[in-house]
Design a protein that fits this description.
Largest sheet of chain A: 6 strands, mixed
Number of strands of chain B: 8
Oligomer: heterodimer
Order of helices and strands of chain A: HEEEHEEHEHHHEHEHEEHEEEHEH
Shape of chain B: elongated
Largest sheet of chain B: 4 strands, mixed
C-alpha cells in the first residue's frame, strides 16, 4: 500500500473547500490548496488574510466548519499530523525549563521516544551554535537564541513537512540569512516547507510555489514562475537624471512608482516597452533601462483591486 | 497515553522542582508543628510565683486565706509566695504595700474587708490584673477559705463536705465499629486540622493549576503544544501532573503529621490524648483529596483558559472558591449534628463532600452507602465538569484580548 499512496499523493497537504467562521466573520472561505511535496510553498497575504487560521486548521488546533484536509494523501489525523512540524507565529516555550528538557518534551509530544529525542538534541544545538546552553534555563537565553531553540524544537522530531508561520519574523539580518540556509538545506533533504508570511518579498525568493490569499479567499496560486509569467513582463525600471514627471502622462503607462534612485513603470496591457524607452530617451539622460517581472506585491495589489471591483 | 504522561511528567517536575514547592512543603509541617507544640511550651512558661501580701481587716480570715493560697500548686510548684501584712492603721499599711509594689518588691496584695465573710467578697490590688490563670487560682483559694469558714461555723467538717461535693469527671468515649476509646477532644482537633489541610491544599493546588494555564497562554506555548495533541489530552495531563505534585506535598505533610502525633504520644499518652489516625481514615483522606482536587482543579483550569491574566481571573475565581468557602461555613453545623438530615444531604453534595463527608467520617461513622454514594456523585460531577472544562479550555486557550463574559463561556461548552 505504501508506495501506491506515495505515488497517488503528490500533495503534501491538500485542502478542499475549507471554511472557518468565527462569531460574526468568515476567516477562511471555501479555500482549496494543493501543496506539492518536496517544495517550498509560500502562503502569502496581508495581516488578517486567514493564513494563521488556515494553518491552525491543518494542525487541528481549530476545527474546520466545512471542507476536508488531507496530509500526505490521507485524511488528516493524529498520525499524519505527527509528520508535520509546526512553528506558530506567536513563538512560545516554557521560560523556566532547561533547553534540553524543553526540546525532549516537545519531541515526545510528537511521539519520539524520550531517549531518542535526547540523542538528537546535541547535533542540533551544535548546528545552531547553542551547545553550551544545553543545560540552561530558557529565560537565561537572549531573544535570538530562544528563536533558535524554538526552531530546533520544531525540526527535532524529524518531520516530513514543516509549517513555519513568519519564519523570518523578528530575526536580525545575519540570523535571517542563516535561517534561509537552513531552510534550503531542509528542502534539499526532500522535505516540504510551508512558509507563511505577510512580508511577501522576504519569502518570495525562497518559494517554488505560492498562494496569495486575502480576507479568507484565495486570489491565485501556482508555481512562482507561472504566476509571474501570467502577469506578463509589463514592468519597466528606469534610472535617469532630470525631471521624469512627464512619464506618468505617456500613453500606455498605468502607474509610476518613484523609488528615489529609480522609478518603476507599470504598463497597460498591450503597450510596448520600446515606445517608453524612446519617449524617455528623448527627454532624459538614462543610466538604466530594464524590463522586469512584476513583484508579488504588485501582483497582489493588482489582484486585490480587480477582485475588489468584481466583489463590489 | 504516552503524550498525556509526557505532559503530566513536565507539570509534575516543574512544580516539584520549584522553590515555592520546597518552601511550602517544608514550611507547612514546620508551622503545623509550631502550632501544635508552641501552646504546650507556652503553657509551661508560667514565670516565677506571684509574691502577694494578705492584708486582713476581717479579723481571723487572714490565716485561712494565707494557708489556702500557699496550697495552690501548678505543675508541682507553689504558685503564690504569701506574706502577712504588718498590723497597723489600714491606710498606712496600704500605702506601704503600694510603695513596695512600685519598688517591685511585691506583685500585689489581697485585701479582706471587715465584712468579707458576709459579703463573700475580697479585693486584689496587683501590678498586673490580666493574668487570668493566676487570678482564677487566687479566686478559688479565697473562695475555699471562706466556704470552709462558713461550713465550720455551721458545724460541718469542711474536708468531708469538699470530698462529698467534688466535681464529676465526665469521660468522653467514642464508639466506632473498631471499638471504643477515650477521647479528650483529640478527634475534634484532628478533624479540624485535616479539614483545614484539605481546604488549603484544594485552594492552593486549584490556584496553581489555574496560574499554570494562564502562564501557558501568556507564553503562547500552548499553541505549540496543542498542535501536537488535542486540548483535552493536554488538559488531562495537566490535571494529573499538578495533582501528583499536590499529592506529593500532601504525603510529606501527612507523614510529618503522623510523626508529630507519634512524638506527641510519648508525652501525651499519659493523658490519653492521642488522636485516632486509623489507616481507613487516612485512605479516605487521600481519596477525598484526589476527588476534590480533580473537581476543583478542573474548575480552576477552565477559569484559567477563559481569561488572559491573573487579575482578570479574580472575579471568576470567586465561583470556584464559593463552594469551598460554603463547606467551611457549614462546618460547625455538621460538626454539631453530624447525623442530621441536613448534614447527610450536605455531605453528599459533590462540591461539599471532600470537606463535609470527611468531617462526618471523623466524628461519627456514617453508613458505608453514604460514603460510597458521595464518592460516586463526586465522580459523576468530575466527569461532567472535566468534560465542560475541556471544551472551555479548547476554545479559551487560543482566545486573546477581551475577557469573555460568563454567558459567553457557557456558550463555549456547547460549541463543537
Amino acid at each position: 500500500m505504501g508506495p501506491i499512496i506515495t505515488q497517488l499523493s503528490e500533495s503534501a497537504i491538500r485542502l478542499s473547500g475549507v471554511t472557518k467562521a468565527f462569531a460574526g466573520h468568515v476567516a477562511v472561505r471555501d479555500l482549496s490548496l494543493a501543496i506539492p511535496r518536496g517544495s517550498v510553498f509560500g502562503l502569502l497575504g496581508p495581516n488578517g488574510a486567514g493564513k494563521t487560521t488556515t494553518l491552525r486548521m491543518v494542525m487541528n488546533i481549530l476545527g474546520a466548519d466545512a471542507g476536508t484536509i488531507e496530509i500526505l494523501g490521507r485524511p488528516a489525523d493524529q498520525a499524519t499530523r505527527d509528520r508535520i512540524g509546526y512553528m506558530p507565529e506567536e513563538r512560545g516555550l516554557y521560560p523556566r525549563m532547561v533547553v534540553e528538557e524543553q526540546l525532549a518534551f516537545f519531541a515526545t509530544l510528537k511521539g519520539v521516544p524520550r531517549s531518542e529525542a535526547l540523542r538528537r538534541v546535541g547535533p542540533w544545538l551544535e548546528r545552531v551554535g547553542l551547545s553550551e546552553w544545553r543545560k540552561r534555563r530558557l529565560n537565561e537565553l537572549s531573544k535570538g537564541m530562544q528563536q533558535k531553540v524554538q526552531f530546533v524544537a520544531t525540526v527535532l522530531p524529524d518531520p516530513e513537512i514543516l509549517i513555519l508561520d513568519e519564519p523570518l519574523g523578528g530575526l536580525d539580518p545575519v540570523a535571517a540569512d542563516s535561517m534561509r540556509d537552513t531552510l534550503l538545506d531542509l528542502r534539499r533533504q526532500g522535505r516540504t516547507l510551508v512558509l507563511s508570511s505577510h512580508q511577501m518579498e522576504t519569502v518570495e525568493r525562497l518559494c517554488d510555489s505560492i498562494a496569495l490569499i486575502d480576507r479568507g479567499r484565495k486570489l491565485l496560486d501556482g508555481p512562482v514562475r507561472e504566476v509571474k509569467a501570467r502577469h506578463g513582463k509589463n514592468t519597466v525600471v528606469l534610472a535617469f537624471d532630470g525631471d521624469g514627471t512627464f512619464l506618468a502622462a505617456l500613453p500606455g503607462v498605468q502607474k509610476v512608482t518613484d523609488f528615489g534612485r529609480y522609478v518603476e513603470i507599470r504598463l497597460a496591457e498591450g503597450s510596448d516597452p520600446q515606445s517608453i524607452l524612446g519617449a524617455a530617451a528623448a527627454r532624459l539622460r538614462l543610466s538604466r533601462f530594464e524590463i522586469v517581472e512584476p513583484s508579488l506585491h504588485d501582483i497582489f495589489v493588482e489582484e486585490v483591486t480587480s477582485h475588489g471591483v468584481a466583489a463590489a | 497515553m504516552k503524550r498525556v504522561f509526557a505532559v503530566a511528567r513536565r507539570e509534575y517536575l516543574e512544580r516539584v522542582r520549584s522553590k515555592a514547592f520546597l518552601v511550602s512543603t517544608i514550611l507547612g509541617p514546620t508551622l503545623l508543628a509550631g502550632f501544635m507544640i508552641a501552646p504546650i511550651l507556652l503553657a509551661r512558661q508560667r514565670g516565677r510565683p506571684l509574691h502577694v501580701a494578705v492584708l486582713d481587716a476581717s479579723g481571723g480570715l487572714g490565716a485561712d486565706v494565707t494557708q489556702s493560697l500557699a496550697r495552690r500548686k501548678v505543675a508541682g510548684e507553689q504558685r503564690f509566695v504569701v506574706e502577712t501584712a504588718p498590723e497597723g492603721p489600714i491606710d498606712q499599711t496600704r500605702a506601704a504595700l503600694q510603695e513596695r509594689m512600685v519598688r517591685n518588691d511585691l506583685d500585689g496584695y489581697l485585701f479582706l474587708a471587715p465584712d468579707a465573710l458576709e459579703r463573700s467578697a475580697a479585693e486584689y490590688y496587683g501590678k498586673n490584673v490580666s493574668n487570668v490563670m493566676d487570678l482564677q487560682l487566687m479566686d478559688k483559694a479565697v473562695e475555699e477559705a471562706l466556704v470552709s469558714r462558713r461550713l465550720a461555723r455551721e458545724g460541718f467538717d469542711a474536708e468531708r463536705v469538699r470530698s462529698l461535693t467534688r466535681r464529676v469527671d465526665l469521660k468522653r468515649i467514642r464508639v466506632t465499629a473498631r471499638g471504643a476509646r477515650e477521647d479528650r477532644g483529640a478527634s475534634f482537633i484532628l478533624s479540624l486540622v485535616l479539614m483545614m489541610l484539605l481546604y488549603t491544599t484544594l485552594a492552593i493546588w486549584g490556584t496553581a493549576m489555574m496560574n499554570g494555564v494562564i502562564e501557558e497562554k501568556t507564553n503562547r506555548v500552548v499553541e505549540v503544544v496543542v498542535s501536537s495533541l488535542p486540548a483535552s489530552r493536554l488538559f488531562a495531563g495537566k490535571l494529573v501532573g499538578v495533582g501528583a505534585a499536590g499529592l506529593t506535598q500532601f504525603v510529606v505533610w501527612a507523614a510529618c503529621l503522623a510523626a508529630i502525633s507519634a512524638a506527641g504520644a510519648g508525652g501525651a499518652s499519659a493523658a490519653g490524648a492521642l488522636p485516632e489516625l486509623s489507616p481507613p481514615l487516612l485512605v479516605a483522606f487521600v481519596v477525598f483529596f484526589l476527588l476534590g482536587y480533580f473537581l476543583y482543579g478542573a474548575m480552576y483550569a477552565s477559569i484559567g483558559a477563559a481569561v488572559n491574566t491573573t487579575q482578570e481571573a479574580q472575579s471568576l475565581v470567586f465561583l470556584a472558591m464559593m463552594p469551598l468557602i460554603l463547606s467551611v461555613v457549614f462546618y460547625p453545623m455538621v460538626l454539631a449534628a453530624p447525623d442530621s438530615t441536613v448534614s447527610v444531604v450536605l455531605s453528599l453534595v459533590p462540591f461539599f463532600a471532600p470537606l463535609l463527608m470527611f468531617l462526618r467520617m471523623t466524628s461519627v461513622s456514617p453508613p458505608a452507602w453514604q460514603v460510597g454514594l458521595s464518592m460516586l456523585l463526586m465522580l459523576a460531577a468530575i466527569a461532567v465538569i472535566t468534560w465542560a472544562a475541556a471544551r472551555i479550555y479548547r476554545v479559551g486557550i487560543l482566545m486573546y484580548g477581551k475577557r469573555p463574559t460568563f454567558p459567553e463561556i457557557i456558550r463555549w461548552v456547547g460549541r463543537s
